[in-house]
Amino acid sequence: MNRNPHIAVVGATGAVGIEMIRTLEKRNFPVGKLTLLASARSSGKQLTFKGQPITVQTLTHDSFAGIDIALFSAGGDISRDFAPAAVKAGCVVIDNSSAFRMNPEVPLVVPEINASAVKDHRGIISNPNCTTIITLMALYPLHVAFGVSRIFASSYQAVSGTGAKAIEELERQVGEIVAGRPVTRNVYPHQIAFNVIPQVDSFLPTGYTKEEMKMENEGRKIMSHPTFRASVTCVRVPVYRAHAVAVSAEFERPITVESARAVLANAQGLDVVDFPEKSEYPVPLNAAEKYNCHVGRLRLDCALDNGLCFWVAGDQLLKGAALNAVQIAEELIK
Fold first, then answer.
1. Are 201 and 258 in the same domain?
2. Residue 97, domain CATH
3. Which of the residues 44, 113, 214, 314 has the least number of beta carbons within 10 Å of its own beta carbon?
């Protein structure tokens, strides 16, 4: 791999694409050249990188000649259509969609957990689901120490996880309510302002949503833990940015709050924020735009044997998406 690789961002004008560009700049990634790709309607727009304007180009199957690494964040259909063309052109694809995550030939990587899986790629590396990443940042170090068998979890997911239109919808609805006007909606099946919606993604025949099953399926693959079980309820909340997850985890070995806190305090990419007597615990506002995830509310689970409850929050556009992708690229050029 070129030490100063030619990087492409696919879906450059989307919420995650913009964060990818910012993250490459902030982390001083050794970009030799940056190419920005998006749909025809975004073509011609200009974005800045290190103070220089870069014109967005239309994504085609011929866009990848000479590109070393392509960061994809344009949805599963685009990834399925264009990633094989990128690989054929000799490019390594880091894909933020769900398109290839469960493909046994595609590594599914959180660098703090399974960085070594990067070297097994055959041209595509998948970025896991944002809620799964944020949860595993706290769960995996505990698993290494105590052996997790199962979790029960509820997520509190920000609207920016859906995209820019959902942010606009929350803003608009708050304005409509304050002004006493009828509430309009076109992104979510229900009003999101001053409400919570217990549906993220579409429903499966079991009654779980696709998003809810990602925690178990992707968690098993990332942690190399085929018997891991996760019962999850994913909830959309009227928060702009950063997801939070309430987790009850059951372990094979005895656990104490003190031993758990010691493990979490040493974990990479994680800050322990746990002073309940001072009302200090993770909240989305404080986790937003931060690279590290925040964990707190540590307590023994009173309904499980060897159980620990915790609350973890993280920026789903950063660690849940753009930052994780850039960290994978950093592993590629090491």
1. yes
2. 3.40.50.720
3. 44
143 has catalytic annotation: no
Which one of the listed residues 121, 143, 243, 294 is annotated catalytic?
243
Residue of 91, 121, 130, 309 marked catalytic: 130
pLDDT digits (tens, 9 = 90+) for 133-146: 999 999 999 999 99
Domain residues for the domain of 208 are: 132-316
pLDDT given at position 66: 97
Residue 1 lies in a domain: no
Mean pLDDT taken over the chain: 97
Tell me: do 278 and 139 sit in the same domain. Answer: yes
Task: Count the domains in the chain.
Answer: 2
Per residue in 283-305, pLDDT tens? 999 999 999 999 999 999 999 99
| 293 noted as active-site residue | no
CB 264 within 8 A of CB 139: no
Instruction: Supply the pTM of this predicted model.
Output: 0.97
